[in-house]
Amino acid sequence: GEMLERLAEYLRDQQETRKQIRGAMIYPAGMLIFCVVVVISMMTFIMPRFAGIYEGKAAALPLPTKVLMGMSDFLVGHWVVLVAGLAGIVVGGLYYLRSPAGLRMLDRVRLSVPVLGRLYEKSYISRSLRTLATLLGSGVTMLEAIENTAAVVGNQLYREMWMAVGNGLREGRTLTEELYKADRVPHSVVQMLASGEKSGNLPRVMNRVADFCDSDLKMGIKAMTVMIEPIMIVVMGIVVGAIALALLLPVFSMSKVIAG
What we know:
This protein is mainly α. Helices cover 87% and strands 0% of the residues. The radius of gyration is 27 Å and the shape is elongated.
């Protein structure tokens, strides 16, 4: 009964963490999609109208306006090819990401992205240590616990790390010795695990470290959510403003355009 309660609490915490990460990504994803829709709409519907106004005066147009008009003409004239190519890239990308090589690449990218990579790292460490602590506390041997941890960690690189740790244990080395060599767990965390390993309180220390990682992860998600909103607004303003400025530059120098 006690182990079932621990398992239920563990699964509840993991589900809450996933929801927080997904929730933090919904807003920037929505803003990015909105920005793309706005840019495409301006390039395909608004820009052709300005092209008709500026027709015959290309020599007098500023360079940004010429570039924008060329991009608009290409987008309008080849939209079928572009849509087909984009669909092919999406389908091919999804197919590749489902392959072992694609999953490994995606897992590596997750850990390499600025800010988000640190959050993913804390999530994988917390999940690993919580799983190990639960299994070791229920009487499962260290090797079996590590095998199960490798299966549920959710990242190919961390899975390979735990498998390597298990191989090291079979050769007579300790858990913390292998984690020091793996270099995917912060040394401060490994030092705490080493103290727990020496004192015989490893599951307890693992749970405490996992609690710390979860708390740090939640704070990181909140901070990222607060930062993303102004950043996305600034990015959208720069993109849309640059397009609008390129459209209106000839108006600001109308006398030159008319003279051309």
